Amino acid sequence: MSRLCLLLTMLAMVAAIPAARAAAQDGSSGPIQLRYDHHSFNPLTVDVPAGRPLIIKVMNDSRETIEFESFKLNRERAIEPGQAISVRIPALSSGKYDFYDDFHQDVPQGTIVAR
Prior knowledge:
alpha+beta, Immunoglobulin-like, 2 domains, four-stranded mixed beta sheet
């Protein structure tokens, strides 16, 4: 029985190698984390590689509903207090892409910079 478990573990490890190589080659290290609290996104500027799709995880740590919006990225999502969302972004061309809280116009605007 223990040899079977060892064999199955080794097969699972070998099967995971292609996925690990693909993640290393595309430079992905997981979603970009944005946190909203005290009427501000943190960080306000995010650098990303151009030409690669990405996921932005937005966490609302405030006590009010916010709206993550970006006209340039064509994204708009409301986030309830204490909730988080994931926003999938296709591969970006080099440039700057703004984001903001559309429900609170006094909040500083953030920027995603694709290089």
